[in-house]
UniProtKB/TrEMBL annotation, chains A, B:
Catalytic activity entry: (1S,2R)-1-C-(indol-3-yl)glycerol 3-phosphate + L-serine = D-glyceraldehyde 3-phosphate + L-tryptophan + H2O
Modified residues (N6-(pyridoxal phosphate)lysine): K110
Organism name: Pseudonocardia alaniniphila
Pathway(s) annotated for this protein in UniProt: Amino-acid biosynthesis; L-tryptophan biosynthesis; L-tryptophan from chorismate: step 5/5
Tagged with keyword Amino-acid biosynthesis: yes
Domain of life assignment: Bacteria
Protein name (database record): Tryptophan synthase beta chain
Stated family: Belongs to the TrpB family.
Upper taxonomic lineage: Bacteria, Bacillati, Actinomycetota, Actinomycetes, Pseudonocardiales
UniProt EC number: 4.2.1.20
Length: 419, 419
């Protein structure tokens, strides 16, 4: 047996909150002007109260509303798959499992939080959401979710992606979302995720009918993603495994990583590994400090690893990993030694992606390929050590909308990067 | 409950052969030159003996080799889903189920036959396959399958697609396939499926290490696809349904249609409906006659509905449905009244696709959208009649590589077509 499914009534009905399991209590976000801890009132112009409550909650479990489960059931539970052909090719004694989040409508893990975010906003009477998107994974997920709850959506898409990668824009429009290039009013500017966040927040503030939605970084976002790890845990048991030795995921803002890894934080023997691009090495080369989430300094200051909110990462194909900061929860786990981090340049990442595609049949998104690179290296280390390690990684999204990146890789057009 | 999965050990271990259930015995294909019935020796330069045997078999069931099951298990059994939100929006008493073939590595039903074709060729010592592809669905599926059995692959891709839709070419190359534009040596020619078949057959004939593979039309191809209908049958029972009232699928060469519909042919009360594009109305406006499968007249003459082997359909986004002929098995069922056919122009097809995407979250391939159009009309007819009909359709592939088509539709750029 190489694939484990669960029936649709076995979607976790509560999210796992990692906060009670952190080595140290989390530091609060600070108001961008007063530098005092932000309270619910500060966040209310942006988010519904239910999400603000989740953002600061210390409850170990938080119920998933039935209306959210009804939508998640369109594709969840997702399969857990064992990469037997990859294991054989590597000649490793490791057993490699991956959680396949690519089967969602938007093709990635992002709808796991887009759906509850749309739900809570609709429930509190909000009619319209604004958001930013880089390559478009988050924007497509939120467009899908807004269509489910009859919410209007305005997406600010990083201009470079808007112009060069029109397909995800079209997907957003197919689901009914409106998309404009960011920064607004600066036609020559290629844009950045930080600048697009500023645009989306500006559009939201002062409009009673409008809230803002973020696809990563924040505590409530990572909370919603824990269905991934919770399902994987149950499926690993079905596969006859007790616990994984290591859990691996790519890390941009931290949401697919938190989603699969957080439910294993209490298990001290399980190693957790974040994989980031060498060109945007937030966890491996950034500093832990309070910093803004966006370029213009409109968001609260968050305690996190950061390369500086004015850092502009070079253009790489893994657009979803080009973020100067990182989830405060992930940052705290790395700072306190509960989670490790590693960085890879694009070349070895795409080598791993092509090897995986030819052996396992699936073409991963460039973001996801980072996790595959680290998984292969972990499996080779297990071979070197002669150890039967159990590796779990998050197959966070497919690469059907990223094939131009593969074209560049296969034809030697990826720019050289320092190793 | 709105989604039914099956464990990986419940993939059908035998294919369903519709031949014993046809109203009349099938007519044989004829040799292109002698016009005598073709024998195994005539086909041996193109296909392995195992597939030739399946092409002419009258056995009711044919075993699926274990090596094939091992690969199919990477994504099969596929889910059966109920489109509850679509039902509610239509206000229909019909219950709408769809079989989700989009979860395969190539994103469509095509790997169901690509895998056994690659397997049988590898088993008989063939080192290299040639094939044609239009938009690229079949080529990607065969590239994936050849990677599993270490076969080289040469794909002749219709030039218009090769130049305008590079993403599926890149997917083929990622899996290790070689791709050239067809017709070879005629740089200004946009190409056609029939011409690409001629190119692929020419490359194969006379090379002992090389065989040819076809992604639709032939009996053995449709045989391999019957895992779809067999699984759906079992899943419908899990859903508490006895049998569907109607089974609907789009039809180009007939493989996704045959795959879901053939296992229901013996059930006289189940209606079967083929959906084709109005611009290539093979079943609805063609004639039943012997005709060539390709433009150059290199293939055997097949008894089928045809628009003439020199018919060049207008350029529509559902490239997979642009074929002058049709499966002889499907053609026989339509001629003898066991299956009905309907044709739609692009506009209403894309209206249905967008409606489905917004309600059910999935963006279908343009080919698949034809089945959705007919499903919606069937559900509205059930509403009109006040009948609780059970509708099963084949969600044959996702549209992540077809978003340019949606862009055209959403922005009013689809050319006008006669209704």
């Amino acid at each position: 047996m190489t694939r484990w499914t669960l029936p649709p009534d076995r979607i976790p009905d509560a999210w796992f909150n990692v906060v009670p399991h952190l080595p140290a209590p989390p530091q609060p976000p600070l108001h961008p002007v007063t530098r005092e801890p932000v309270g619910p009132d500060d966040l209310a112009p942006l988010f519904p109260m239910a999400l603000i409550g989740q953002e600061v909650s210390a409850e170990p479990w938080i119920d998933v509303p039935g209306e959210v489960l009804d939508i998640l059931r369109l594709w969840r539970p997702t399969p857990l798959q064992r990469a037997v052909r990859l294991e054989e090719a590597l000649g490793t004694p490791a057993r490699i499992y991956f959680k396949d989040e690519s089967v969602s409508p938007a093709g990635s893990h992002k709808p796991n939080t887009a759906v509850p975010q749309a739900f809570y906003n609709a429930k509190e009477g909000i009619a319209r959401l604004t958001t930013e998107t880089g390559a478009g994974q988050w924007g497509t997920a939120l467009a899908f979710a807004c269509a489910q709850f009859d919410l209007d959506l305005q997406v600010y898409m990083v201009r470079a992606s808007y112009e060069q990668k029109p397909y995800r824009r079209v997907a957003m429009e197919t689901w009914g979302g409106a998309v404009v290039a960011s920064p607004v009013g600066e036609p020559g500017h290629p844009g950045s995720l930080g600048a697009a966040i500023s645009d989306a927040v500006r559009d939201c503030v002062g409009r009673d009918d409008t809230h803002y939605a973020l696809g990563s970084v924040l505590n409530h976002v990572l909370l919603h993603q824990t269905v991934i790890g919770l399902e994987a845990r149950e499926q690993l048991e079905l596969a006859g495994e007790r616990l994984p030795d290591v859990v691996i995921a790519s890390c941009g803002g931290g949401s697919n990583l938190g989603g699969i890894a957080f439910p294993f934080v209490p298990d001290a023997g399980v190693r957790l590994l974040a994989v980031e691009p060498a060109s945007c090495p937030t966890l491996t080369k950034g500093r832990f400090d309070y910093d803004f989430g966006d370029t213009a300094g409109l968001t609260p200051l968050m305690p996190m690893y950061t390369l500086g909110h004015d850092f502009v990462p070079p253009s790489i194909h893994a657009g979803g990993l080009r973020y100067h900061g990182d989830s405060p929860l992930v940052s705290a786990l790395v700072r306190d030694g509960r989670m490790a981090a590693v960085a890879y340049p694009q070349g070895p990442v795409f080598d791993a992606a092509v090897q995986f595609a030819r052996l396992e049949g699936r073409i991963p998104a460039p973001e996801c390929a980072h996790a595959i690179r680290a998984t292969i290296d972990e499996a080779l280390a297990a071979k070197e050590a002669g150890e039967e390690r159990v590796i779990l990684f998050n197959y966070s999204g497919h690469g059907f909308l990223d094939l131009a990146a593969y074209d560049d890789h296969l034809n030697g057009r990826l720019p050289a990067e320092p190793e």
